[in-house]
Amino acid sequence: MADLKKIKFSGIQFYNDSNRYRFFVVTNYAYILGFILHFLFLVFFLVIKLYIMAYFNILSCSVFILNLYLNRRGLYNIAIFFTSSEVTLHAVLAVYFLGWQSGFHYYIIDIIPLIFYVPYIKTVIKSFISLAILTLYLLLMFFNQRYGHSYIINDKILQAVNYINVFCGFFAIASINFFFDKAVKDSEKKLENQIKISDSLLLNILPKKIADKLKNQKGTLADKYSNTTILFVDIVGFTSLTEKSTPENLINLLNNIFSKFDDLTEIYGLEKIKTSGDSYMVAGGVPEPKEDHAEAIANMSLQIKFLIEKFNVKLGKNILNVRMGINSGPVIAGVIGKKKFIFDLWGDTVNVASRMESHGVIGEIQASEKTFNILKGKYIFENRGPLNIKGKGMMNTYLLKSAKK
């Protein structure tokens, strides 16, 4: 059974699971209304001294109290079975004693909406039950017209009872449908809120463009992007803090640092790809094309240096630093796997950007020649000269210093 949660309905506290919420609300109201009506019937039958029906209504009131308890226990279908049986038998007995003119037969019709609200039962079965109720209704009308009723009662009283039952029967149907409609709107609102929460969580994992594709597309999701710039950031000195700080303080510090990085990605229109330990990866031009992808990455990397300096001032120690690597070029980007999937990048451009960071200088931003060629004239670089890059051989590298004023 699904996890049960507390809710309040008409001032009474009930329990529901998400799949049966509407049926639960409607039937609880119906059982409360049924108890009230049958208690009034009890008084009426005592007044006219029809004691058999009075005793039956004592039993009926007990049934509706029991049904409220069954609903709270999640035994919805048993409760609706008891209700249907009680209402049908009550109508048959009342018509037998007081006749068709008493109007008690109208309550048989009230069962049909409740039957169709029952969850997890096929519509064919519900239609069959409704047809059986209709057949019983017609048979009851036929036998009463042929044999009449067995209990003598004043015609004016009988007519008044008929009017009351007509009103109560239609009131029951109208109010049941009112609460069903209200429950539908409540459940739809809850569903909309859950969808918003799910979308929000999904957008914290994936870019909006990719998340939208993932909702509508099955299988592997991948695209090629020709013009991108990748930045890898490694926080130097963070590992040494693990021996000197509590886990809580360490995680809070890392969270604060990466949260500031996240803010920068928003400012410069970049896409955070992932974090790994104390490393941070961000891309420009993915998944949305961006003409100034290299400039945006350069500006973010320069801001990161400034942020780390501010963190050191806050810590009162010059213990944190960064080593960064930048490269530009084409990448393959997409989502793979079935569980705990992430949006990731592949290709030589990503590998070289990673090597720019790992072969870089502490406190510096090392850029490849591809990135340098895009940014030269707009930023100040220091030519570091050729380096032997793992897997690539000798490559010219440059240290990004600042933007030109």
Can you put this structure into words, describing what you see?
There is one protein chain. By secondary structure, the chain is an alpha+beta fold. Helices cover 58% and strands 20% of the residues. It has helices at residues 21-47, 51-72, 76-98, 106-117, 123-147, 155-205, 208-216, 238-241, 247-268, 293-315, 348-358, 369-375, and strands spanning 5-9, 12-16, 221-236, 271-276, 279-284, 321-335, 343-346, 365-368, 379-389, 393-403. The longest helix has 51 residues, at 155-205. Helix 1 (21-47) runs antiparallel to helix 6 (155-205) and helix 4 (106-117) packs antiparallel against helix 5. The protein folds into 2 domains: 5-201, no CATH class; 208-403, Alpha-Beta Plaits. The strands form 2 sheets. Strands 3, 4, 5, 6, 7, 8, 9 and 10 form an 8-stranded mixed beta sheet that branches.
Task: Provide the fold topology.
Blueprint: E1 5-9, E2 12-16, H1 21-47, H2 51-72, H3 76-98, H4 106-117, H5 123-147, H6 155-205, H7 208-216, E3 221-236, H8 238-241, H9 247-268, E4 271-276, E5 279-284, H10 293-315, E6 321-335, E7 343-346, H11 348-358, E8 365-368, H12 369-375, E9 379-389, E10 393-403
Parallel strand pairs: 6-8
Antiparallel strand pairs: 1-2, 3-5, 3-6, 4-5, 6-7, 8-10, 9-10
Helix pairs in contact: 1-2, 1-6, 2-3, 3-4, 4-5, 4-6, 9-10
Keywords:
405 residues; alpha+beta; Alpha-Beta Plaits; 2 domains; 8-stranded mixed beta sheet; two-stranded antiparallel ribbon; 12 helices; 58% helix; rod-shaped; disordered N terminus
